[in-house]
Amino acid sequence: MSSILTNNGAMVALQTLNSINKDLGNVQNAISTGKEVGNAKDNSAVWAISKVMESDVKGFKSISDSLALGESTVAVARQASETVADLMTEMKGKIVNAQESNVDRGKIQADITALTDQIASVIGAAQFNGLNLVSGSETVEVLSSLDRSSDGAVASSSISVNRQDLTMDAGVYNASGTDLSGNVTASDTAVVNTGITETLQLATSVAANDVLRLQIGDTSVAYTSADTDLNNAAAGLSAAINAAGIEGITATVATDTITLTSTVAFEDTDLTFTSTGATTGAYGTDAALEARAETVTFSGTAGVNEGDGYRVSIGSTDFDYVAGQGETMEDVAKGLKIAIDGAGLSDISTNVTQDANGAWQLQVDNAGASLAFAATGRSDGEATGGLAGLGDIDVTTDEGAAAALANIETFIDTAIDASAAFGSVEGRISIQSEFIGKLSDSLKSGIGSMVDANMEETSARLQALQVQQQLGVQSLSMANQAPQSILSLFR
Questions:
Q1: Contact call for residues 373 and 190 (beta carbons, < 8 A)
Q2: CA–CA separation, 290 vs 265, rounded Å?
Q3: pLDDT mean over 347-376
């Protein structure tokens, strides 16, 4: 049936042409924007995912900037600490030269002072954008990542950069802080110059030509008996000990007994008696002469928190060291040694060692008048700088030169440890920065695979739709012309 009111063919052709034009519009939009999914209408689920990922990419760009800033800041600190280590190595060479008595120590001291000033200058200038990592003790956080969980929650991650305090600040001991006296013990209430004694009593019998031998540390002293009198043998061996000229060791004699006296400050001296005959030797307490120095023993089990301060009092003078971040009892002992040495007290010398249980000890020896001696500790102080006492090095005296040689090693180790710490964290930041760059590229690639148009496919699709459009127009034209044949029926 033909109708001049309803043209079904034209309606079908028009619908087809509209569909073709719509698809053609989508293809042209994809070509012009480069995206297959350009808005939520195109594909709401894919569009939503892509937008979340795009926000992450922008976040990672900011993180990359943060890492670059952090890496530069740490690099400056590392360079500064390495420079300080080099300068102190040079200073050590001058301190070694000062150990000789026939050099101009005044000129050497002037060089050491100049190097100290240069170190202070390096530390003060080692900042990037106002942040100095070789001064102070606060931890710096460098934003390193954004972590998105499966439920969509986002959390930030950071790389912690511990400051390495290379300043010469003395710190502040907090006398009202929590009592830490249980972590430190002084061996006596006074430090005196009295020699340490040990007795050796000869017994049993002695015969003529018996050889009596006493090993004193690394020195062996021998006496050949002239008769059978033990008292004469003791006197002869005592005289041989004094004649041996062992530094810090003297001997006196009583009936059959030798009294050994030691003023050796920091080392125990072992004693071993032997005889080629029947003579035996009995010690008063043990087979050793203990070191004369008094000791401050630090707990081998207690931890050290930032701000924990320890004080050693010698006479009327207090010497303090306040621990910084991550320090140990070894650092405390060495810090107190440096503080005492820097004061230049007459007749006072120090040493740091460990006891048989591994606990750190500060030894304090006095070659002069008796002085009061005590040790205590308090929390919540302001940390002492890692190079505190460097400016007090004085090689113009024998005692000062000897103390400087021991302490410069502590300073060098501090600078080396700081350099190593900065180098480690700088490497980590560099790795994270490289990873963030690759991650951003991967995210961009993933977003592209979801929303970007396949241009080869789109080009082919465009050509096909253009042909379909032409055919659709032709079909609609033919459908519209069909009713014209009805006119012939009315002629």
A1: yes
A2: 9
A3: 95
Question: Is 114 part of a structural domain of the chain?
Answer: yes
pTM of the predicted structure, to 2 decimals: 0.78
Compute the distance between CA of residue 350 and CA of residue 343 in angstroms, rounded to an integer.
12
State which of 243, 267, 289 marks the end of a domain. Answer: 289
56 and 142, same domain (yes or no)? yes
Boundaries of domain holding 70: 46-161+416-444
One domain for residues 51 and 138: yes
Strands 360-366, 348-354: pairing is antiparallel
Angle subtended at Cα 130 by Cα 129 and Cα 133, rounded to the nearest 5 degrees: 100
User: What is the amino acid identity at position 119?
Assistant: I
Query: pLDDT, tens digit, for every residue of 91-102?
Result: 999 999 999 888
Closest CA to 376 of 174, 176, 185: 185
Among residues 260, 212, 209, 203, the alpha carbon closest in space to that of 230 is found at 203
Domain count, the chain: 4
Q: What is the pLDDT of residues 154-173, one digit of tens each?
A: 888 899 999 899 999 999 99
| Structure-token pair, residue 455 | 């241009």
Are 145 and 17 found together in one domain? no
Task: Classify residue 204 as left (phi > 0), alpha (psi -120 to 50) or beta.
Answer: left
Helices assigned H by DSSP within 137-244: 230-243
